[in-house]
Structures are given as structure tokens and as C-alpha cells.
Amino acid sequence: PLSSLNDGRIIGLTRAEWSGGGMVYLISLVDKTDRSKGIAIETIANVPGNHYMYADFTGSMLYAATADYTFDLNALEAFKPDRTVLNPSLSWTAESGAVEPWHGLKMTARCYSSKGTKPEMVELKPLADAGTATSLGSIPSCVSGSFDKVDIRIEPDGSSGAFSKTKVFEFKARQ
What we know:
Layout: E1 2-4, E2 10-13, E3 21-29, E4 39-48, E5 67-72, E6 86-94, E7 105-112, E8 122-123, E9 134-135, H1 140-143, E10 149-156, E11 166-174
Antiparallel strand pairs: 1-2, 2-3, 3-4, 5-10, 6-9, 6-11, 7-8, 7-10
């Protein structure tokens, strides 16, 4: 794929999942005033994986990065700390124009009391696609119902260079 930098230069990327990575190139005219002198191609980087570029002419590449989120139930006006949290679930929304199936990412979660110790993060799977709630019933620390914090971590699962683009995560429960 190629992407213009809007200054006469172009970024190019070779996709090479089979060889362990692609190359990123900067392509420009040798002499901006004389096209007949040809183009210069400079290697910028060798990137692991099978990445792709945005189609919005930014020259950017998408990389999945690890993101941590904490839901603090005490910040909610309706939350009652002395009552049990029932049927906790998470759902997510895709970025505008992005595909909605959960792909290329892994989510881990834990529930805990701000007055206690944090348990280990546990992978939440299978995770439902965008707009559909996924129960936290498979996460042992979320089953007790005695918690006021929920942590989630989103990270690449290492399966490919393609992944879901997430926008909003929503926690729901009853008391």
C-alpha cells in the first residue's frame, strides 16, 4: 500500500507476514523541480507482522497496543457498596467504519474491592462481537459480587496483524 504525505513524498509498505515483517519506505523525487531525475527510495524501518496502512492518506500504520481500563463503581450515583453486584457484563463498540467482529485482540479482566487485594487477570473468552454483552461469569473474582472496581486489559493476541478497532467499553450489572 502507498499513502501520500501531502508534501510530494509517499510512504510505501510491503506486507510480508510469511517472512516475519514488512518494510516501510519513503519515496520522493530526487529533484522536486525536475521529474526526469527520477525518484529516491529510502528504507525507514523493518516492521514485524503483517501490518496495513490507513486509507486516509496519513502515511500511518495501525498497531494494536495494550490498553488498561478501570471501571470504578463508587463513582456511580446508583451504586450501593453494601449490596451485591449481580450479572456483571461488558460490551464494546467498534470505531466508526470498522468491522464489528472481535478479532486479533485478547481481553483479560478482574473484579475486586478497593479495600482488598487485586486478583490475577483472567482471559475473557469467547468475547462477543460489538454491541453484544459478554458475561463476566467466567471470571472467578467477578462471581462473588463483592467488588467495586473492574479492570480490563486489551492487548494483541499475536494471531495476525489485523485486529478490531474498539471505541467504547461498557460495564453493566444489577444490584
